[in-house]
Write a structure and sequence with these properties.
Number of helices: 11
Radius of gyration: 45 Å
Helix content: 25-40%
Oligomer: single chain
Order of helices and strands: HHHEHHEEEHEHHHHHEE
Strand order of the largest sheet: 1-2-4
Largest sheet: 3 strands, parallel
Length: about 300
């Protein structure tokens, strides 16, 4: 055992030990500031998360040990048998989730008429792509190479729009499939004539690309009569239909001139009256060529049908 006197000396020695004083505290503060000056500034580039603060999102091996290559287990997705359009993996499809709109009924069967404006027509005439000394029809537009009429896409010809009606000045004999009242008035004001005519898809194939049709060596087709829903338009004289009454067309020409306030030119007194009054037969496809004739481009000959006795 420690004697009592030695024990008192040991306790007094412990309490008399030198603890950190103010000088030591200042030295530690300077050391910390010096270390902060040497360290880089805290920016987004050197901020790090605390250790183990994020969980690993990597999946385990699972049931099949990762041998499905992300395609799942069985089913069409794994076998690369792609689902049909509109199939929504057992859910109610899009086209049955919404109500039926009668407006879209038969939209894929409607006849389409790509537009050609009077401004475009005037440019084609000014650049000599279309000859105004000859009647103009759908073949004249297609041979310029600037218009793509596709009967396979339900194109049934062109419609002549009134864009550029204020600058149109040409005198033409033109045949289109659809035209507005202003377009008809603009052409007739300049002394020209316009006709709206129907072509069935089979005749359009020949009319859109005459060279390709003649190279086949097949007869020129006969134009079909318009269907019931289109015949009403082409029977109207105000539309300048090709099967309308010529007397009614003359009356409508005069009425339209009075409506728009211009003097109707007399075509009979015009030097180009023969060209302006040229019309196709309702069964005719090309000007000057009758149905049943065969055109040989190689021999530059026209093979006509024999007259039946």
């Amino acid at each position: 055992m420690i004697p009592q006197n030695k024990k008192k000396k040991l306790i007094s020695k412990c309490f008399s030990r030198n603890f950190p004083k103010e000088s030591n505290q200042k030295m530690n503060t300077d050391k910390a500031l010096k270390m902060l000056r040497a360290l880089p500034r805290v920016v987004l580039g050197n901020i790090r998360d605390n250790p183990n603060s994020k969980k690993n999102t990597k999946r385990g091996r699972g049931q099949h040990g990762g041998n499905k290559h992300g395609a799942g287990n069985k089913g069409s997705g794994q076998r690369q048998n792609y689902m049909r359009l509109g199939y929504e993996t057992g859910n109610q499809p899009f086209y049955t989730r919404f109500t039926y709109e009668p407006y879209y009924k038969g939209h894929h069967l409607r006849r389409q008429y790509p537009p050609i404006s009077l401004l475009q027509l005037q440019k084609l005439i000014d650049t000599n792509r279309i000859d105004v000394s000859q009647p103009i029809d759908l073949a004249s537009f297609c041979t310029t190479g600037l218009f793509d009429i596709r009967p396979s896409s339900r194109h049934f010809g062109v419609q002549l729009t009134d864009e550029g009606a204020d600058i149109f000045q040409a005198k033409v004999n033109i045949e289109v499939q659809h035209a507005s009242e202003l377009v008809i008035a603009t052409i007739e004001k300049n002394g020209g004539t316009i006709t709206t005519a129907y072509y069935d898809p089979f005749s359009l194939v020949a009319l859109v690309n005459p060279k390709k049709w003649f190279e086949k060596g097949v007869p020129i087709p006969e134009r079909a009569i318009p269907p019931q829903d289109a015949a009403e338009y082409y029977l109207e004289a105000k539309n300048r239909g090709y099967i309308a009454d010529p007397e009614q067309i003359s009356q409508e020409r005069l009425a339209l001139a009075q409506k728009y306030g211009y003097e109707l030119p007399k075509i009979e007194e015009d030097p180009d009256a023969e060209m302006l009054l040229t019309r196709k037969d309702p069964r005719q496809v090309f000007y000057g060529l009758h149905p049943g004739w065969v055109i040989s481009l190689k021999d530059r000959a026209i093979i006509k049908q024999k007259a039946s006795n």
